[in-house]
Amino acid sequence: MRYVSTRGGPATSSARDAILSGTAPDGGLWMPEAIPQLPAERIAELAELPYPDLAALILSPFIGDAIDDQRLLDLCIEAYAGFDDPEVAPLVPLAGRHWLLELFRGPTLAFKDFALQVLGRVLAELVGERPLVLVGATSGDTGSAAIAAVAGRPNIALVMLHPEGRVSEVQRRQMTTVDAPNIVNLAVRGSFDDCQRLVKQLFAEGVGDLRLGAVNSINWLRIAAQVPYYFAAAAKLNAIEHPVAFAVPSGNFGNACAGYVARAMGLPIERLIIATNSNDILHRAFTTGLYERGEALATTAPAMDIQVASNFERMLFVADREAVPEQMKALAENGRFHLTHAQRDLVDARFSSASADEPAIVAATRWANERAGQVIDPHTAAGLHAALHSDLPHDVPIVTLGTAHPAKFPDAVAAALGERPPMTEALQEMFARPELYEVVDADAEAIAGHVRKLAGPSA
Ligand SMILES: *Cc1c(COP(=O)(O)O)cnc(C)c1O
């Protein structure tokens, strides 16, 4: 399997180098040259497989000969052993045609664990002799999931930036209470957009001759490792006979992109319903064809408080690759671009969208509680809002992706339901541990200094 850049640059990459490098040299994102296909009879059999076996089977063509199949299976078994439900991604009935796929059973209680638990192990497998320094920015959930995945791994270090005071206390403590010599947490005096800009600057300018790597969802393996749960849920609902729809709480479009890849591999997905919160750039792009950056608003679903959905570039590429370099240039220069006809056709055929403002998030949280006895978090509630308002025929089952555990967002859940969700045991233990982090200015040179220090005297 070869990888090509969404910006059309001449460089291609092996799976190994695409995963280790994060982005292509022309600034684009790596995409597989062709999407592998899974025939219908194989998909029907997946319902019988344990989750790690299913994950290894789906990932295998994307990893190619970078890791052999038996070893990949071992890594997937290890990656999902730490989840607190034997099904890994349990599918729970809500009411009527609505289902909830619980993707928050991993160590940090958000769906990011699905990809990062695999990515951490795959990076350790591929890193070789030369140390790898991962640099990432987080609005909350990526940081903790990445730290949990790489803490203590030899030859890999991680510098994680979060905006000071703008992640929830649970999210911050999940990052800062991990005591490992290869992890540094930096609280940046600025916004999440500042953090992301600083990371991009470090990648562009380099830090000495250090080898830098990405853990954000610009890394292709983050997307690939989210494809298997779409297959798992759809196989359980017998999608080969009756196609299903998924409602996807979206920010950077990584999860939705994985759903699209599942569809392109042959999974009968009737529709991917993209849910945004009040930061509705994707919903606007889908309904008007104009992709235009606005001001990021703070909501109760902070992991979706994003103005530029990085992985949307991958969809644009699939639909009309020639247009992408110009569109990305226009976005950088003017903050906007128009989708082409081919891109709009693909979007109309595969996706629909809805935006959930704060009252809609509260209403969906209450619906789940009253109709199904389920306590859901605000991100999941945004997804459920979109599912409940879908215009799909009534015989199409809709699976809402549960992207975070309600205990991660206790204040928002309490505001909707009048009662705080119980804390998990792991969270209780976490609150007793000391925090380790440094506060820094939003300055690339200061960050680079921390990267060098962590990398050690050889840097
Ligand atoms: C990251 C995240 C999202 C958004 O996912 P994308 O892949 O960025 O679209 C939604 N909900 C939660 C809880 C998250 O952590």
From TrEMBL:
Its EC number is 4.2.3.1. Pfam families: PALP, Thr_synth_N. Its cofactor is pyridoxal 5'-phosphate. The keyword Lyase applies. Residues 2-80 form the Threonine synthase N-terminal domain. InterPro entries: Ser/Thr_deHydtase_PyrdxlP-BS (IPR000634), Thr_synth_N (IPR029144), Thr_synth_N_sf (IPR037158), Thr_synthase-like (IPR004450), Threonine_Synthase (IPR051166), TrpB-like_PALP (IPR001926), TrpB-like_PALP_sf (IPR036052). It is an enzyme of class 4 (lyase). It catalyses: O-phospho-L-homoserine + H2O = L-threonine + phosphate. This is Threonine synthase. It comes from Alteriqipengyuania halimionae.
